Amino acid sequence: MAEFNDKIPLVAVVGPTASGKTGLGVALAKAWAGEVVSADSMQIYKGMDIATATPSLEERDNIPHHLMGFLGPEESYNAADYARMAHSAIGDIHRRGRLPILVGGTGLYVSSLLENVDFGAFSVDQGRRRQLENEVAVDGGESLLELLKGYDPQLAARLHPHDHPRIIRGILVYEATGKPLSWHKAQSKRIPSPYDACIIGLNYINRDELYERINLRVEQMVDQGLVEEARNCRPRLSQTAAAAIGHKEFYPYLDGVVPLREAVDKLKRETRRYAKRQLTWFRRMPGIHWIYLDEVEDAGRLAAQASAIVKDYFGGERDV
Length: 320
Prior knowledge:
The protein has helices spanning 21-31, 57-60, 79-95, 107-114, 126-139, 142-151, 153-156, 164-177, 181-188, 207-223, 226-233, 239-242, 251-254, 260-284, 299-314; strands at residues 8-14, 34-38, 65-66, 99-103, 195-203, 288-292. By secondary structure, the protein is α/β, with parallel strands linked by helices. It folds into two domains: 8-116 and 196-314, Rossmann fold (3-Layer(aba) Sandwich), CATH 3.40.50; 126-188, Histone, subunit A. Helix 3 packs across helix 4 (107-114) and helix 6 runs parallel beside helix 8.
């Protein structure tokens, strides 16, 4: 049971892609008079709804959803931008007497927000940012990751060469301040989080069931027009948006290099790998209440189990 304090009560639903976070977030919002705040680094973009599995109005079921589809895909965006906007949205929801429900699978966004990471008010050299983005577009992320290792080995050790936005962010922060981003984060964590967060994680005991859900979702996305969406968005994607899984896997097909089925299979494979990275991230986060979906019979039972966790966490001492 959480201790009574003056922090903002918040429920977070996290887990890998295709695990049902969206539906559970809506169910909890309906049960607890809440509103959803997205913690997905790609659902911020307009015109990428299929690739990012952005919930439709029907799926939102009249529950307000924040930080979805508000930015053009040509715009850059990062964790600092997200934290600033999410803090504002959560504060507004709380002031109106509603419960913020954070829903998403971008571990950096969730951790930065809940741990109250301060990314600093220093200015970034936009010319240098464009230079790095052009370099990674030509040469990939390997050389920039090597550069980052010299600046911030702690951060570099956690990043994949394809994680271009975070590699570039780490380089820019060091070059602007002379201090690694990991140092800034450690300093910022001295300020306590403003949130009393009940974190619910979705997972599977049998990982094959998750992978089967991912494979099915990819097929559904293709049927919904994912290839055409990738074609339409491709000419105007920022470096940040271009990192999204779901579009770039189809570029070889659109260029006539590989057949469609090969592109679809690659998307399935990359999405499964991403799900593994998500789970690795969330398993490092303390205090998560895990629900294993292969032990839950249906969505109704899942919602009831999650709601019981929320009730037990906050107890009867406070209103949420």
